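Researcher: Next entry in the queue.
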Amino acid sequence: MSILFSQPDWQLFTNLNTLPQQAGIAKHLLPKLVIKELIDNALDTNSEVHIAHEQPELWTDIITIRDYGQGIDGTNEQIAYLFSLRRPLTSSKRLRLLQRGALGNGLRVVMGTVYCMNGQLEIATKGRKIQIIPKDDGFSEAVEIEKWEGSGTEIKITFKENLFGGKDLLQWAKYALKMPKTDIYQKKTNAFWYDSDSFYNLILSLPDDVTIIDFLKEFNPQIIENQFFKNIDTKNITREKIDDLLIELRKNETILSPKKLGKIGEMPDFQGYASVFSRMEINASKGKLAADIPVVIECFVQAIDEFSTNQLQENVFFVNKTPIVGDISFQFLEKKIWLYGCGLQEMIEIPKLNTSFFVWINILTPYMPIVSNGKEPDFSLLSFGIVEVIQKAMQHFKKHQPKKIFQNQAGELIDKNPSQKQIVLENLQKAIDKASGNGKYRYSLRQLYYALRPFVMENTGKELKYAHFNTLITEFEFESGQDLAGIYRDERGTLLHPHTQEEIKLGTKNIEKYKRPEFSFNKI
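Model: Structure for this entry, 524 residues:
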């Protein structure tokens, strides 16, 4: 007998081996993603957000996230349902705006991780603190702990068995918090930002207590005055009628210029910056209307400070000021950047630079195509804009790149690149000790070269050529009036003795062993 199994998708959130499929990341990154999701929600609510991380004992992590927004509406039971695995995709962010979330999948990932890792979640909002307890049936229970007098919302999440470790647990959250609190487009959504299919699905996802007219007011509060919308038959809605709705909505709208979205602008400490305005056209597969999506792409380039404790010196893509979780490979060649991943496969020509650097790219848009529930973006439609903005930012960085900082032998930081001769002479005795076993053995000039070469590479960033090294040592010996103790030169050529026909190898050791013959001369 063939059994046809049926599994609701919420059950995939209750297994640590299937939860990564829904989250779009490897399981060891789940705690890191949970914190990012909560930070994103807090930042969409209020720009003032604080985060704290405690580790009272091994394998235990306590993270507290606090925002000062309006708090979470609803009863304890309603909040418990919002934080349950069994609910369908529920989100207030399905309207296309410049927000960090959209699917309504994030809180299910949060609760799935809490459930699978035996964690705890507490929420303090609207005058009380409650604990949300995920149950085996996919629902959650809210238990009120105590009164709370703070403003906004405070969420405390505890992982008592964080076997993945707490290292870099806050990294993605820190990147999101690092983005400046600049003014970007916060007005109503725009009818041109939806294609026929997405608009149809949006109307189908309306809750029962919200009418189509109430929904359309999100686009234009005066919509109720339009006779066309007054005559809508909401009981027998079809794709064709929804297309007509979207067409009528667009009559009262204008295509928004990407410039009106705003942008972050230049950031302190970043020496390179550029911005590009772009658009995406998203075609419908069923309906007849395409979406016209405005986009702002910004690129920030900063020189790597090798002596800084700042850990946020990585190449990162952001969408609406939050880091993406998709993998994009950055490979830097001498005058090229190779980008691969999330729909990108680009070889980008850049100017030759004297400094190591890292790149941040932020994309502001009301809608970003994704390829998984983990919100991995598809940047293929923006590839030309991304290439252009990187090239412009690199040209800007080249003009403003700082001098490279070096550390001399005394441990002092200097901004002047030391010469190869200086590094060779400063480290000469160390290299001699290494090559000779602290004076036990003789050593060749080439052995000394290999001992000194790493010092030169580390301090100047340039390869030490053997011919140049040979010249430096020869000049040093000439100036000091003696050869380096214990050194010998390798054989370089052969002399043929004119009388004995003996071959004499030209090397230090052979010359030292050579005994001058005694000759007698017959005078004629």
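Model: The radius of gyration is 34 Å.
Researcher: Noted, moving on.
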